[in-house]
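Deliverable D5.2: sample structural annotation.
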Amino acid sequence: MHIVLAVIMVWGIVSRFLVPGSALLTWVIAPLFVFFVPGLSLAAALLPRSAGWMDYFFFAPPLSLGVALISLLWLNWLAIPATVPVFFLISYIFTLLGLWGDLFRRRNFKSTTP
């Protein structure tokens, strides 16, 4: 899962700079990256290991929208304009935080099990 999320993240960055107004970026990559990928990485970090893939996919959109809403309210409080690059940056940051948390949790579980 980490490789798929990393590929989507790199694909979003590259397409944002190479073809900034393309239909692929507008209709596929951007909604996927804003509404699904951060929640999927956060679900991998927050849900227990016994949860299945359907649980991860079920909790991904609410987590992504919650993170986006909290970030938007925080940006509004700081008087920072919410633009498209800011939303992409928020998605990148929370995707990396979720992946980092999942990797950290896996490392701790592997070191404590016999």
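Annotation notes: The chain has one domain: 2-112. The mean pLDDT is 84.
The annotation will be released with the project's public dataset once the embargo ends.
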